Each structure stands twice: as structure tokens, then as C-alpha cells.
Sequence to fold (188 residues):
Amino acid sequence: MSKDLQLDTIKEKCEQCKKCNLYKTKTNTVFGTGSGNAEVMFVGEAPGEKEDLSGIPFVGAAGKLLDKYLEFAGIPRDSVYIANILKCRPPKNRDPLPEEEDACIDFLREQLSVIKPKVIVCLGRISAMRIIKPDFKITAEHGKWFKKGAYKIMAVYHPAALLRDPRKKEDMAEDFLKIAAELSENDD
Ligand code: URA
Fold:
């Protein structure tokens, strides 16, 4: 079965999920978008309002900024898969609860085991704390590479943090250039 078909099967399972209470308040499940053959997987925190309404991750203001950095670093859209730790929106965009993350994380594991990206990029602190280490410090440790099994992992600021604090934009640009360099190195 192709990777895209395998992802469709996991998506169908995810859409039926009732392992935590978020299915009661969601409009749509936001499973993830992109190619099953993506080299890099970006992982955010949880869907916001626009994502909940559309079923697509990072379509709101933060997503537009993410698109800008991908373009700036010359990372083609078709080399990218985008997902979140949580597939359903927490009411009023509150932080995910630990039990919600625990209930949902297997879907991300399954996405990773199908896609097998070379690189994982955590978008923001919450994703980095779950994927890299629980005491991850985004200000001190964004832009650094971590190795876990076959994956090279980096966390960058959440794009929404740049909307609140534009001084972070320079760091974000540098981090995206590092990601692009790593991807082109892997092409050799
Ligand atoms: N913020 C996230 O972490 N994920 C989205 O999909 C949208 C906004």
C-alpha cells in the first residue's frame, strides 16, 4: 500500500477517536497534510479555530507565517508534512492537557512510522516538550539539533510567538536556513 493510502487509513481511525473528551467539542479532526514521502515533518501543538473549521493544520495567521519561512528557506511545500500533537482543538485554544496528549500521541507515532521523515521540526515549546524532552527551554534551545533514533529533531519558535514578539523573527529565519541546509545535505 502506498504511504498516502496508509495515512488515509490512520486518518479514518483518528476521525472516529473518542479517547479523550475533545471529540465532543471539535468541528473537524485535523489529522495532518502533506505528502507521505515528505522529508521533513513539522509538528505544532493543536488546531486553532481556523484549523478546526477547515480540518487543515496551520491555515490561520500562524500558518501564513510558517508558509513565509518555508518559502524564504526554499523548502518546497511537497517535501513537507504538517501535523500537530493534538488532532482536535482544545476549547478556547487552551494548552493541551497531559491526558489529551497521551490519548493522541499514538496517531503522531503512526504518522511518523509511515512517513519516516529525515527531519522533525517541533513548532513551539509544547511540541518540543513532548517530542524532544519534558524540560525543553525554547528560548535557549531553539535551533539546536537533537538526535532520537533515526530522526534529527529541531525545535523552532511557534509562528504565533513571532506575531506577539517580532524580535524573534531573525532567530526563526536562521533556524529555517539550518533546516534547509540539513535537507539539502541529505539529498547528496
Ligand atoms: N497552531 C498550532 O500549533 N497548530 C495549528 O494547526 C495551528 C495553530
Remarks:
- The chain has a mean pLDDT of 96.
- The domain at 3-187 is CATH 3.40.470.10 (Uracil-DNA Glycosylase, subunit E).
- The chain has one domain: 3-187.
- The longest helix spans residues 169-187.
